[in-house]
Amino acid sequence: MKPFIYDLTFDQLQEWLKENGEPAFRAGQIFDWIYVKRVMSFEEMSNLSKGLREKLMDNFQFVTLKEITHMKSSDGTIKFLFGLHDDNAIETVVMKHNYGNSVCVTTQVGCRVGCTFCASTLGGLKRDLTAGEIVAQVVAAQKILDKTDERVSSIVIMGIGEPFENYDATMAFLRNMIHEKGLNIGQRHITVSTSGIVPSIYKFAEENTQINLAISIHAPNDKLRSKLMPVNRRFPFDDVMTSLKFYQEKTGRRITFEYALIGGVNDQVEHAEELADVLQRMDMLAHVNLIPVNYVPERNYVRTPRNDIFKFHRALVDKGINATIRREQGHDIAAACGQLRSKHMESNAR
Questions:
Q1: Do 203 and 329 belong to one domain?
Q2: According to the annotation, is 44 in a ligand binding site?
Q3: Residues 123 and 13 in one domain
Q4: How confident is the model over 303-317, as pLDDT tens digits?
Q5: DSSP-H helix ranges across the chain
Q6: Most exposed residue of 17, 20, 91, 235, measured as fewest CB within 10 angstroms of its CB?
Q7: What is the pLDDT, as a whole number, of residue 297?
Q8: Active-site option among 15, 22, 91, 150
Q9: CA–CA distance, 99 with 33 (Å, rounded to integer)
Q10: What is the pTM (predicted TM-score) of this model?
């Protein structure tokens, strides 16, 4: 199968052009066509020679995302289930905020991390997405927003899959998103979230970007985190925290700790105090984002009662930790990661 044109970073496209006897400046024209004009065929690239267009057609293809279904929330959130060329399906979510439009993208078909409260891991990992298949999700969202003269203003890599287990494709995607001739999205308006793939955290620290890093922590200690997140057995809590400390010392960037509150499991005041002690002991510049867990029928967890959420938040704040409770979006359309795909898989299995 031919690679996707979106797979190539600007530098890679320049190199390909030179190797094929074409001037490198054509990369800017091609990026303009695919990211600014957002065409979906090489024939439309009218300022390129016929010969170059034929070379592009012979060597590359566009990503085709087939919309299987979408659901729209009362708060404006739209969740899409897209079909890929190999009949796999992925989710992409467009969220509307008072500060702009955010897109949550998927990096893998399924996930092998195995978090016990998450629908994304149901069925395991099928395959990695290419950089182009991740890019295509943002382009699809932008084409929808084009209809109302809006634009994608921020990206969160928090959809299905573990981006740091698909590291090279994720980084190529990010380079295309921030490139001035690409979608030109500000680096500080992009957040990549990991479950704690330690080697990739060290690599990411060396990338010299201003892209935000978030860590799905969900527990204040090794024992509880291993129960909730089997990945913690590969990369123990202390190793994750040490890698995050290295990242912060290297970049000077604040780290967001995502903490899904699960009723009666990890949501007690003592858990909050233990987490605060860990962050203070590590002397980390941190923000804790508390996420009331979404109910997943296949999992047995329940949501933390509202009053307990506030108590947990207050316990963190009282210990000097910057913390917020995430505003829920798409709650009425099963917008939790993996739920729509899970329903689709069940339907196809019948």
A1: yes
A2: no
A3: no
A4: 899 999 999 999 999
A5: 10-19, 26-31, 50-59, 131-146, 167-178, 198-205, 222-228, 231-234, 237-251, 269-281, 306-318, 339-349
A6: 20
A7: 62
A8: 91
A9: 28
A10: 0.93
